[in-house]
Each structure stands twice: as C-alpha cells, then as structure tokens.
Amino acid sequence: MALKYLSGFGNEFSSEDPRCPNSLPKDQNNPQKCPYNLYAEQLSGSAFTAPRTQNLRTWLYRILPSVGHQPFKKFHGSNLTHDWSEQEPDPNQMRWKPFDVPKPVDQVDFVQGLSTICGAGDPKLKNGLAVHVYSCNASMKNRAFYNADGDFLIVPQLEALVIITELGKIEVAPNEICVIPQGIKFSVDVSKPSRGYILEVFGRHFTLPDLGPIGANGLADPRHFLTPVAWYELREDISYEIVNKYQGKLFVCTQNHSPFDVVAWHGNYVPYKYDLSKFMVINSVSFDHCDPSIFTVLTCQSEKPGTAIADFVIFPPRWSVQEHTFRPPYYHRNCMSEFMGLITGEYEAKKGHFSPGGATLHSIMTPHGPDKNCFDFASKEELKPYKIAVGTQAFMFESCLGLAVTKWGAETSEKLDPDYYKCWQGLKNNFTGPV
Ligand SMILES: O=C(O)Cc1cc(O)ccc1O
Ligand SMILES: [Fe+2]
C-alpha cells in the first residue's frame, strides 16, 4: 500500500497512528499521564535557546522511552571513517568508476555497507561534512541506526529504499532524496542490491536557499517536501540493536523492544523526502551560462554569509536556449570543493566519461570543465533550442571546506580511475592571434 505523507518544509506537524486515536496530548506536552500510558520524550535538533526561526524539536509519545537500553560497545564492520589524515593530500581531478554492490553470497545491510569517500571537519566541533556511499543487499534486521553527529542527506542511485523512522515510514527511490536529521533512529529495508550517495553535515541542518530576486516561487517548492506519518510496532522480548554514529565512530547497544514504538508525535524536527523531478528550473533565457547555484535544492550554511558547508545541487533536464553562448559548463577554478555523482544517464560536460553510480571530485582551485569531445562539439554546434539531460540526473555536493579523500576512496574501493586527466589532454591550441 502506498505510504502517506505530510507536506511542507519546516512546518509544525502533528501525527497519530490511526490505531490509537487521540494519542497526542492536546493541550500540553507533558501530561502527568499520557494517553494510552505512553511516555513523552523530546528530541531537540537545535539549542533550546536557538532563535524561533531556527528552533527545532519534536515531541514523541512512545511505548517505552529511548533510554531503556544496554550500554554501548564498539561496532565493527563498515568502512565509515572521519579520519581525514589517512592519505596525503592530493589535488588531482578524481573520478571513481561505479561503486560495487555486494555479491549475493555476502549479506550486507545499509549500516554495514557505508563507506566514506571524503570529508572534512569534526563532529565534535559541529563543523564539517562527510561524503559516503552506501551499498547493500540485505534489510536491517532488528537493527536501527542513528547519527549523533549530524544529518544524512541520502541520494539513492540504484533501487528504492524503505526507511522506517521513529516518525514513520518513507519510501525513497532513485531521483528522490531524503534527509534524516541528527539523532532520529531509522532502519533501511531493501528488496534488491541497492546503492547511493550520502551527504552528511555535522551539527547543522539543511534549509531551502533564499530566492532573492527570483521571488516567492521557484526552485524546490516547500510543499513538495514530504514527511512521514506516525507508525508504530509493538515488539517486545527481542534483541534489538541500536547502532549509534558518535564522534565519527560506530557503537552498538541492545534493547529488548523495537525503537519504532512512537504512537504519536508533533513538532518541526522531522525526516523528509523530495522528488527531484519537481524542481522548478530557473536559467538564462538570453545568453551565457549561469553558475550552478541556480540549481540548489537544499543548503547547509556555514557562519560566513552565503557560503555553504554543503549545497545540494542538481543538474535536471531543462531547455537550453542561450544565444551566441558556449552552453556547457565553463572551464573554471573554484574556491569551493565540488563532489559530483550521477544518478542516471549522462552528464552534459562528460558524455561517456562519467558513469551512473560513480563520482568525481574537483578540489579547491583544481581546474576542470568540459572534456575535449564536449568542447569540440559545443563550440561549433548550431544554437537552436533543445532539451538537455532528458532522462538524466547528475548532482553536486559543493562545499567551502577542503575535502580529504579516505583510504577507502583512494585505494580500498579500487574505483579511482587513474586515466581521468586524459579527457582534457586532447584540448588543442586554437589561437588565431599573432605569435
Ligand atoms: O564542474 C561541474 O561540472 C559543475 C558545474 C556545472 C556548471 O554548470 C557550472 C559550474 C560547475 O562547477
Ligand atoms: Fe565545477
């Protein structure tokens, strides 16, 4: 059966599992006795004292409080790391071939299938990000995960995930994304080998970009963000594992009941999903190539005005109409880091040189731009209106931080392609001026 959702970004939502009508206390958060004898638990996503516009919290009414668990111990068995000094810095343009999905003989769940490619910063200081891939072929069985360090923005590339969260269930397919904020427990079910990308930001949250002169509408519309409805299960006398990512390391504890026992909740600190095909694209209709910030879906801002710890940017299907213009991305060097992934199809600047499920990293001030084939074609093409990227979707995590590549990214994955630089080698000197 299709899942139900609540629509809106940053709303004050409330939801009750229909099996328990009136389970949400109406007039207060902490009644002496909650309806159905539930426990009240607050989950804070901002300082209690954060300004109203940034204040995030949700009240959960659950069968048992989260605190009823055994002590945490170390959890081994994933390639997740925040050790940014595993490798020497490397400013080269990097391209990864598609990351492997597990072989059928190896049963790997979402948590076990997490591998960190690159990142920067420190969750202890609430500043930084990590880029991971997930690759799994098994559902999380009696196992939930929460990230004490920050938010996960999950970008499925191969197959859909069903994500059971404390606030309800979300189904997220390729060309959709979902955000699970810091601390919210979730468990991932898969029905086929599945793969995707994760942008993790430490201790800050994603917001919608301001629209400035664009006006009140455009880009991602707040009403297209979907939050789950309350859903609970009553499972006791089982051994349920809670894996906690804390200060860059994984820990696990057990408890004898399901963590998905929230019967009702209200608040504005919630997981959500968004369908990338709903993005309203704004672009030049006269001449020249706009900066890719026009395609920002969500941003996680640093303290510096207009500067992102991470922007999530997409390159959606759109009309290309600019006159007397080299239409593909320009050659450039950027004071920001650019990590790109490809969900499906071909990326306009690298046709045939960038595969779905793979990635590229163009580090701070490292030159990059269209490959030779793209330049040769686009500098001569007839400039009639045409649709670009039909049926394709590339995306970028753009960050003001310098990203360090992990040992897994550089070596263990065996996907780093030493030939990437060759795609620019054939670019000719076409100079027609005097010598
Ligand atoms: O490097 C890239 O391919 C991403 C990118 C796209 C674009 O249209 C303009 C600038 C830019 O960095
Ligand atoms: Fe770029």
Describe this structure as you would to a colleague.
InterPro entries: HgmA_C (IPR046451), HgmA_N (IPR046452), Homogentis_dOase (IPR005708), RmlC-like_jellyroll (IPR014710), RmlC_Cupin_sf (IPR011051). The active site is at 289 (proton acceptor). It catalyses: homogentisate + O2 = 4-maleylacetoacetate + H(+). Residues 4-276 form the Homogentisate 1,2-dioxygenase N-terminal domain. Belongs to the homogentisate dioxygenase family. This protein has 435 residues and is an all-beta fold. It folds into two domains: 13-276, Jelly Rolls; 281-423, Jelly Rolls, CATH 2.60.120.10. The protein contains two helices and 28 strands. Strands 1-16-20-13-10-15-8-7-28 form a nine-stranded antiparallel beta sheet. The chain has a six-stranded antiparallel beta sheet with strand order 6-25-24-27-22-21, with no helix packed on it. Strand 11 (161-165) and strand 12 (168-172) form a beta hairpin. The longest helix has 7 residues, at 372-378. It is globular. 43% of the residues are buried. The mean pLDDT is 97.
Features:
single chain; mainly beta; Jelly Rolls; 2 domains; binds 2-(3,6-dihydroxyphenyl)acetic acid; binds fe (ii) ion; Homogentisate 1,2-dioxygenase
C-alpha geometry: globular
CATH class term of the largest domain: Mainly Beta
Please state the second-level CATH architecture of the largest domain.
Sandwich
Series of secondary-structure elements, N-terminal to C-terminal: EEEEEEEEEEEEEEEEEEEEEEEEEHEEEH
Q: Which stretches of 5+ consecutive residues score pLDDT under 50?
A: none
Active site: 289 (proton acceptor)
Region (Disordered): 7-31
InterPro entries: HgmA_C, HgmA_N, Homogentis_dOase, RmlC-like_jellyroll, RmlC_Cupin_sf
Pathway: Amino-acid degradation; L-phenylalanine degradation; acetoacetate and fumarate from L-phenylalanine: step 4/6
